[in-house]
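Predict structure. Chain length: 385.
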Amino acid sequence: MSISYIILIINILNTLKATTELWSIFSQIDDPRSHINKLHKLEDILLIGIISVICAADTWKNMETYAKAKEGFLHSFLDLPNGIPSDDTFNRVFSSIDSEQFEACFIQWVSHLVDLTDGEIIPIDGKTIRGAKSNGIKSPFHMVSAWASNNNMVLGQVKVSEKSNEITAIPKLLELIAIKGCVVTIDAMGCQQGIASKIIEQQADYILAVKENQKQLYQDIQDEFKFGENIQTHLHQDLDHGRIETRKCSVLTNFQFIEQDSPWEGLKSIIKIESKREFKNTNKPIETATRYYISSLMGGAEKFQKNIRLHWTIENKLHWVLDVAFSEDASRKRAGNAAQNFSVLSKIALNLLKNETSEKQGIKGKRLKCAYDQSYLLKVINLKV
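Prediction complete.
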């Protein structure tokens, strides 16, 4: 027996252990099928779904095609009593699974992987699955997600019917994830007194963007910086991609216009970011912007400058990757809970792929390598599952 064959057997046994641990969490999901329609085990359908999405499957047909090509490998740790499920079976089951249960299991699974550190930035933001629209009607699928910036992982998601409902979805998401000691950053949609209170209640801190949807607060902050004293500042400059971007961060902690008994629980600092973007070798005009924030933290301008920039990791490392590497915006899934549950599958795959660091290429390339290279797939699956 060759050494390479022995190594393969060991890796498959490890995969069996890993999938068993994964299934111990996802087995809490109720099987939506009637007894007469259970040709395939729910366990097999879920695990093939997860593994095939890791291996670049973006449709139900892709799932079936991958599973049939790798049936021998899958048989080494799955029962498959009636062979490989069809694409219609994958579609029907994932469309019927209770999406809230699936999301709760995902969050529970992530909690076993993630090791949040004090002060870690947790950006929260929403994303619409644009391809799910039908007959010209805008997509009803808008996911609000939380991202751990240091751990490079999705912590959880909840679905809302449209962007305006993020206000109600964010507190629900905050209740589901452990954020103690972390710093939650949210854009202006989430700048609500109830959300600030919820974050403080969970022994975390916040940095919330402020726009004119909070008219009085916005005006008070402008007045504070207009007349305030002892303003801390920090200047940062980036030179990249043919442009020069300068950002000045100003921080005030002694307020004159914001009342001491402010309804914003824990409010200690207000922040102003003034940005200027200049373009080299073009005639494009200089772009300027001023943004305001409130925070429960006491800190220097340099620290706030860094933390506010980290909020955009959810756009660059999650939303952008879901569109480019997982083709999420092009997805046409809209039956039942299909779009929401496939989004969970994509985020499971993303968490595993991002935290496998031996392969120096992007997520899309890693997915293809998993499909081609079984030993690499085993390495990804066994990673802290």
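Summary: Residues 117 and 182 are 7 Å apart (CA to CA).
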